[in-house]
Structure formats: structure tokens, C-alpha cells
Design a protein that fits this description.
alpha/beta, Rossmann fold, 2 domains, 5-stranded parallel beta sheet, 22% strand
Length: 359
């Protein structure tokens, strides 16, 4: 049995999603909840039928806990992941590893040194429409991609009835680090690391954190990517668009309903080519029927394998002996931290930021 603790319930939508998803894995179960906001943590622990532990050190010292799921604010994620690694606990983080490149690399060093199984849940990579977009780009059907656009937005900050907490709008980091992070890692997955970024943000609701934002990413070969995100967009459908030298891919959500996992039935896909238009359209419309295995399932599998190896050999496999996928996951998390740091610097200074400045 894999025994897990939940560290922070910052985003109730994601917290409940993790708890709900764990029901599908009889080999794992949550045994405790911690939150720096004791009132919030106690309430969620009661909702999930779990004990609340107010002392984080005591929780991480427990020998019966194998790993932790971290659903904290973006500003707190790095410190919690580092503490989990120092305690030898496997860790699954929600979206972000850190908010700066230096911080991300520091945490990554702790992860590697502790030889824990670590993953960041980048859930939109598993959406069938995004898998189809990546397939279209990598197959060469579009030629060379010259422009990419991703939009991920909802209206929780302005909805008449909403459970959207004010802490999301009064935090140091706003929508870029939440909904906007999805567009950034999707863009990085397809186009790689940009040369420079420019960010524009607004505060439509008047709070301290940005709630409406867009960024432009520039690449060495001339490709441009646009990522849009917002907390103040009513019924805004998800969109992912790729424009290439030989064709275009347009995909997205049909109904404007925000979900953690977009279903094939919610999505629309269109593709356009030149003389290959019919073939391209047919290929692009054949989205996967189901999403790839979740990060949670792969993480639990890795923990189980590590436990079995430790029981038989006395130690788990070092991270450099794991499949390349696991090191790639950590590299992706570091890349996202670098992008977020550059975007917030651009938003603060009002200028273009070159990523080479962080090297």
C-alpha cells in the first residue's frame, strides 16, 4: 500500500480532483492533510474523511508516509517540494515546480540528491485535442510551424456565484501562474524554449494579482507563439492553433466549459492544407479516443517500483537509471519556471525579456 499525504488545499478544484482520482487506485490512499491555513486544511480534511496534521515537520517525519501531493500556491510550491525531498518523500506537484529558474534548479538538485520520484501534473498535455495538435506538428503535415496560439480562460473571478477565493487575486502571482501555465507548457512541448518573451497583463477586477493576460514568445527561427489566459472571460472555449508553411491546425473546446480534462466529445478540430487538404483534415480529426495515462498513475507506478526494488535490494533505483521520461519531466518543470520568471519580469518592466539573461 502506498500511503500519501496532501500538502495544502490551495486550489479546492484541483484538490478535490486529486482526491477523486485516487479512488481509482486501490494500491494507494491518502492518510493525512496539512495546510498552512489551519481553518482551510481542517475543513478539507473533514470533507475527505482524513485527519488534519497542523505540524508539517511531524507529518514529513512519519515513516509510514511514502509520498505527498502538493497543491499549494505557486509561491509556496518550491519550499514544500524541497522539504518533501529532504524528508525522502516522493512528491507530485500541481503544475509548478517554482517561480524562478534559480529556485527551480535548487529544488531539482534536492530532488536528484534525495532520489525521490517527482512529477508535476501538467494535465492539459493529456487532452486528446492537444495530443492531436502535437501529432500534427511533429508529423510534418503542417510543414514548419510559423505561429502557435493557445487560449485557456474562465470567468470565475466575475461569476455571480463562484467558489473562487479572493486569495487567487490577492496573491503575488495571478492567472499566468495558474491557467496561463497550461498554455506555456503546451507551447514549450511543441516549439521548445523561446529566445524572448513579452507579457501584457491587466487587473480587471482591481485586485493586486493579474486576472487577464497575454504573452508573445519569439523563437530563433522566426516562429511566434501567443498564449492568452484570463479569470474574467465568460464561457471562453479552450483553443489551440498551429499555423505552418503547408497547413494549419485549429482545435479547441466547443462549449466553453472549463474542465481539468477536456473530453473528445467537447472538442472540435479542423485542419487545412494545400493540395493535401483532404488528407490533412482526415488525419487531424482522428483524435485519440482517450487521454494518455495520467501523471498520477505513472507517479504511483514509479513509487511502487521503487518500493519493490528497495525491499529486494536495499535501495531504490537512482534517478539516472530511471526511464528518460522522468528526467524529461523535471526538465519540463524547470523550463516552465524559467518562462514564468521571464513573463513576470516582462510584465513588471514593460519590456521584452531575453531568456539568455537567465543563463
Amino acid at each position: 500500500m502506498i500511503r500519501l499525504a496532501l500538502l495544502s488545499c490551495w486550489n479546492p478544484y484541483h484538490t478535490r480532483s486529486f482526491v477523486r482520482d485516487l479512488v481509482e487506485f486501490p494500491e494507494a490512499r491518502l492518510v493525512a492533510v496539512w495546510d498552512d491555513d489551519h481553518e482551510r486544511g481542517t475543513a478539507h480534511a473533514a470533507e475527505f474523511g482524513l485527519p488534519f496534521e497542523p505540524n508539517l515537520t511531524a507529518l514529513l517525519d512519519r515513516a509510514d508516509i511514502d509520498g505527498v501531493i502538493i497543491d499549494s500556491s505557486p509561491a509556496q510550491a518550491a519550499s514544500l517540494i524541497e522539504l518533501a525531498a529532504q524528508a525522502g518523500k516522493h512528491a507530485l506537484a500541481d503544475q509548478t515546480l517554482a517561480m524562478t529558474l534559480r529556485e527551480a534548479e535548487q529544488v531539482a538538485s534536492h530532488i536528484r540528491r534525495a532520489n525521490i520520484r517527482f512529477a508535476v501534473d501538467m494535465s492539459l498535455k493529456r487532452w486528446p485535442v492537444n495530443l492531436a495538435a502535437a501529432n500534427a506538428a511533429r508529423s510534418g503535415a503542417l510543414g514548419e510551424v510559423t505561429c502557435m496560439r493557445v487560449r485557456n480562460a474562465h470567468h470565475s473571478a466575475i461569476a455571480a456565484t463562484t467558489s473562487f477565493a479572493s486569495r487567487f487575486l490577492d496573491a503575488p502571482y495571478g492567472v499566468f501562474s495558474d491557467l496561463g501555465a497550461h498554455g506555456l507548457y503546451l507551447t514549450h512541448d511543441i516549439l521548445g524554449r523561446p529566445d524572448a518573451v513579452t507579457a501584457v497583463v491587466s487587473r480587471f477586477t482591481g485586485h493586486s494579482a493579474e486576472d487577464n493576460a497575454v504573452c508573445v514568445l519569439e523563437y530563433a527561427n522566426g516562429t511566434i507563439a501567443i498564449c492568452e489566459t484570463s479569470y474574467v472571460a465568460g464561457q471562453s472555449p479552450f483553443a489551440i492553433e498551429l499555423y505552418g508553411t503547408e497547413g494549419s491546425f485549429l482545435g479547441g473546446g466547443a462549449n466553453g466549459i472549463h474542465r481539468k480534462l477536456l473530453q473528445p466529445s467537447d472538442a472540435v478540430v479542423r485542419a487545412y492544407g494545400m493540395e493535401k487538404q483532404a488528407e490533412l483534415a482526415r488525419d487531424a480529426s482522428e483524435m485519440p479516443d482517450a487521454a494518455e495515462p495520467s501523471t498520477l498513475s505513472k507517479w504511483l507506478e514509479a513509487i511502487e517500483l521503487a518500493k519493490k526494488r528497495k525491499e529486494s535490494n536495499g535501495s531504490s533505483a537512482p534517478n539516472n537509471e530511471l526511464p528518460a521520461e522522468w528526467n524529461a519531466r523535471l526538465d519540463d518543470a524547470i523550463a516552465l519556471a524559467e518562462l514564468l520568471e521571464a513573463l513576470y519580469l516582462s510584465a513588471e518592466t514593460g519590456r521584452k525579456v531575453y531568456l539568455r539573461d537567465f543563463e
